[in-house]
Amino acid sequence: MSLVEYLETQGFIVKIINRLIQLIANEKDIHESIVYAQMLVMASSNYPKIFENPSIIKKIILLIESKKEFYYFLIQIFSQTTTMYERFKIVGYQSSKDKIFIDFLSLVIENYINNNTTDDLNSTEDLNSTTSNDTENNREDYFMEKQYVEFVSLISEPEKLNLTSLMQNSFTIKLLSHSQEIAIAKIKQTNFEVIDKLIEIIQINKDHTLRFICIEILIKIETLSKQPIIDKLVNLTVNLKDSQIQWFLAAELKQITHKPQLQRLVFGLKDYVEEAVAQSDHNLYIIAHSVLWHCANHLSYTEFSDACCVQPSFTDLEAFENISIANSSTPQLLLKKVEQSSVLQSAVSHNEELDRAVQLICIDGSEFNPLDNPATDIYIQMVEQGCPERQEGTPTTMPLLKAYWRLNLRNLEKRVALVFYNSKIDREFSEPFLTALSAFGGTIAIITDRPCDNVKRISPNHPNLIDAVLKWLNRSILEA
Asked: Which of 11, 44, 324, 480 could form a disulfide with 77 if both were Cys (CB 3.0 to 4.6 A apart)?
């Protein structure tokens, strides 16, 4: 018996599902609620039998009745199988006081299920009158064209569009079902004319669930067609004034794993993790950090660096795959806007245990002057990131800095950890500096391929740099 099977037989999976429902109900932070709801949908896909349990169904219905803006997640859960839908209807009509709401949900789910497996058969008579001699392929093409035209007509009035009309449209259901690749191929044939209309719906329509669906469709178009609309999705994220929609879009963007698209995301969001943004729009600042952290965990150090530095003229996704950080003929490819420090510190802040125990100080070596004795530069960066000032004044030599490191920082509330890195690709740490650093001791890491004794060394080409730093901090501080 596997571990998952054991957990299921012991009731742990049911406990986790109940806990997710409770978290969604009690969580006041909308972006956290969306994350929990997505986890619930994933659980329903992995354990559909559990979601046929009347007790679980009743709890989900009660949850959605109190948070109606989340009913799209209920639709996703109970439209997966006919059995789940039938159980939902029975429990819904038995337990809910809002029978009209259950009628609406049932209509949408039933339409979703029916269109997963069949075309619009109601149009057969119309078809036969004009195409009686056509092949089966022509019949399918006819239906697809007809459904697509209806879909385009439907979304042409973004402000007036309502959820019921959209979910009754056969082409919409194809986009959200197992037929999505066929539907997106049709969109591709028409030069993606629907993208701007879908974006307009997200911007101006008042129905949150309708907007959620349009976001999901856009992400599917981006993912399956490799159509480079990341720039538009980034602009949408930045310019939306509705934080709930912003966080839902960010959560969907974090489903992307294709490297060129991730790199485009990095390039688009790098300007929004600066301190000025944190002061003027803290929500956007946190969202940008969240998405960039996802990107950093799916890109190598070099790939992430390339994405930070690529010039705006690189609009073709294929260009990303051909950029090399080792290309010395392009000195403009410098890591400047999104520093490694931003991503690393965000990663630590998202780890509750590390955040309580560690004060991470990231030292950028790209501006060291002099290269062999950067004691003053290091000290200034440490103080700017929260370390106490030295009473005797600024250390001017590496031995004085070592004394400050060992004596002045040992009794702080959090343990200080130093991570040295270079944000410019044409810079490297000097050998005298590395020799001096090797005598410091304590929790110090350096991102370099050059040898450095007594210091944790992590390659800049590590395939998962963020995880490597977090694991080192865990071993060095939490498990020490």
From this structure: 44
